[in-house]
Amino acid sequence: MSENSPANSSKLLVVLTSLPNLEVATGLARSLVEKHLAACVQLTDGIHSIYRWEGKVCEEQEVLLSAKTTESKWPEISAFIQSAHPYDLPEILAFSPEQYEKQYGKWVESEVNSKS
């Protein structure tokens, strides 16, 4: 195991979802941090999404939410996003970075495991 790849339960995870507007995205981002499901959440406004839904090609402006958490929080964070999300079928994707700065990973882990 390399120094930048801690045990799986504490491995860094980046969770992505898209939301209809900045107000909804900000509310979800704040909840994720307040509930210690994510240490940090970044919002990128102005995403132009093109997708097929119920047989039609749709185009929407959306906000991309990127939450930094750990693998051990995946069941909780994915369930929370699913329950709080306004879409019928929200995009909820998670990626594990192969490499990340060790101190940043420790900070994320300490934040999502904090009780205060």
Give an overview of the whole structure.
It is a single chain. With 116 residues, the chain is an alpha+beta fold. The protein is 30% helix and 34% strand. The protein is built from three helices and four strands. A four-stranded antiparallel β-sheet has the order 2-3-1-4. It starts with 11 loop residues before the first strand and ends with a helix.
Classify the beta-strand content into a percent band.
25-35%
Radius of gyration: 15 Å
Annotation, overall tally of beta strands: 4
How far is it from the N-terminal to the C-terminal residue, by CA? Answer: 31 Å
In spatial order, strands of the major sheet run 2-3-1-4
Structural class: alpha+beta
State the assembly state of the protein chains.
single chain
Describe the global form: elongated
The H-and-E topology, N to C, reads as EHEEHEH
Q: Any low-confidence stretches, pLDDT <50, length ≥5?
A: 1-7
Mean pLDDT: 92
Helix segment count?
3
Provide the helix percentage.
25-40%
Question: What characterizes the major β-sheet?
Answer: 4 strands, antiparallel
Give keywords.
single chain; 116 residues; alpha+beta; four-stranded antiparallel sheet; 4 strands
Secondary-structure blueprint:
Elements: E1 12-19, H1 22-34, E2 40-53, E3 56-70, H2 74-84, E4 93-95, H3 102-112
Antiparallel strand pairs: 1-3, 1-4, 2-3
